[in-house]
Amino acid sequence: MRWCVQDCKESDEALVARAQAGEGGAAEELLNRYKNAVRARARKFFLEGGETEDLVQEGMIGLYTAIRAYSPSHGKSFKNFAYLCVTRRIYDALRAANKLKGKEDLDPDSLEAGGTPEESLLAGESRAELQLKLMRELSDFEFRVVTLWLEGMSYAAIAEMTGKQLKSIDNALARSKKKLQRAFLN
């Protein structure tokens, strides 16, 4: 999925600042810029008894939340923050639907608790907290690669999506692992 918008005259961060200052047109511009990305993200999920459009609406709410809550002081791009907010909102809608249907509340984000200390630490963190830590510790490219990898994408698919070589993807994941080990174990 592409979380960048081409042919934009004003940066996302500048539009966010204007929207947070009360300019409704700026928020509308951002919502329009990202609506196709939100739709693409929502299509990856199935809501039993619902429609994809329901998840798109939840994703748009997540995008609006991102516009209101984004702070450039964290040093990360708006597009990565928006991706996180949209994904979380969709996951929350899926969890709520599962609870309403009396089904087991399966967390689509849960990481397997496993053999290594890193996996145990990661399993104890909620996905939202993990992604916030990822955003703080990793570069934008590393964050995107790790996020796509955690979603189950292969190295080849990530390379195709990002337009990078397989070796670049492998190196980004290796760097990320070292950075995250330092961050979580210190």
Give your account of this protein's structure:
The protein is an all-alpha fold and 186 residues long. It folds into 2 domains: 1-108, Rna Polymerase Sigma Factor, Chain: A; 110-186, Winged helix-like DNA-binding domain superfamily/Winged helix DNA-binding domain (Arc Repressor Mutant, subunit A), CATH 1.10.10.10. The protein is built from 9 helices and no strands. Helix 3 (52-69) packs across helix 4 (78-100) and helix 4 (78-100) packs antiparallel against helix 6. The longest helix is centred in the middle third of the chain and has 23 residues, at 78-100. It is globular, with a radius of gyration of 17 Å. The two termini are 33 Å apart. The model is unreliable at 1-6 and 103-125 (pLDDT under 50).
What keywords describe this structure?
mainly alpha, 68% helix, 186 residues, Rna Polymerase Sigma Factor, Chain: A, 2 domains, single chain, Arc Repressor Mutant, subunit A
Distance between the termini: 33 Å
Decide which structural class fits the backbone: mainly alpha
The amount of beta strand, in percent, is under 5%
Largest sheet descriptor:
none
Number of domains: 2
CATH superfamily of the largest domain: RNA polymerase sigma factor, region 2, helix turn helix motif
Low-confidence stretches: 1-6, 103-125
SSE series: HHHHHHHHH
General shape: globular
CATH fold node name of the largest domain = Rna Polymerase Sigma Factor, Chain: A
| Rg, alpha carbons | 17 Å
CATH architecture of the largest domain: Orthogonal Bundle
DSSP helix count?
A: 9
Please specify the SSE layout and strand pairing.
Blueprint (H helix, E strand, L loop, with lengths): L11 H9 L3 H19 L9 H18 L8 H23 L16 H8 L2 H11 L2 H11 L4 H8 L3 H20 L1
